[in-house]
């Protein structure tokens, strides 16, 4: 069995290359400035947390649920997404691994 060499940069040649950052320029400066402004005006986000805690404790139920969601995502991180993979007719998935023959 012969295989063709893997094209650098994926199928289009424009994808990620080994050892090169996918975001070499980093976060856009505009976003950094917005983040800095928000942090300055909210005491490093403390005011936002206080607002959401107040909403969670005393607000209408709809807003309490949204505040709980906001607080848990930022306090504990987002819950992992579970994805189930099934084969034909909900059966098992069969995976075949082949290694190139040595020359």
Question: What's the helix and strand layout?
Answer:
Layout: H1 29-41, H2 46-58, H3 61-76
Helix pairs in contact: 2-3
Fill in the keyword field for this structure.
103 residues, mainly alpha, 3 helices, 41% helix, flat
The assembly state of the depicted protein chains is: single chain
Order of helices and strands: HHH
* Average pLDDT number: 82
Q: What profile does the largest beta sheet have?
A: none
**Helix/sheet category:** mainly alpha
Beta fraction: under 5%
Point out poorly predicted stretches: none
Overall strand count? 0
Individual helix count: 3
Terminus-to-terminus distance = 11 Å
Shape: flat
Short description:
With 103 residues, this protein is an all-alpha fold.
Textual characterization of the structure:
The protein has 103 residues and is mainly alpha-helical. It is flat. It has a domain at 45-78. It has three helices and no strands. Helix 2 (46-58) crosses helix 3 (61-76). Helix content is 41%, strand content 0%. It has helices at 29-41, 46-58, 61-76.
């Amino acid at each position: 069995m012969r295989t063709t060499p893997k094209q650098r940069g994926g199928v289009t040649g424009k994808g990620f290359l080994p050892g090169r950052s996918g975001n070499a320029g980093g976060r856009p400066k505009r976003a950094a400035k917005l983040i800095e402004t928000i942090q300055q005006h909210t005491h490093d986000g403390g005011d936002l947390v206080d607002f959401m805690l107040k909403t969670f404790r005393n607000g209408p139920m709809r807003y309490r649920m949204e505040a709980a969601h906001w607080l848990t995502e930022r306090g504990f991180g987002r819950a992992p997404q579970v994805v189930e993979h099934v084969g034909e007719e909900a059966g098992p998935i069969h995976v075949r691994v082949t290694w190139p023959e040595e020359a």
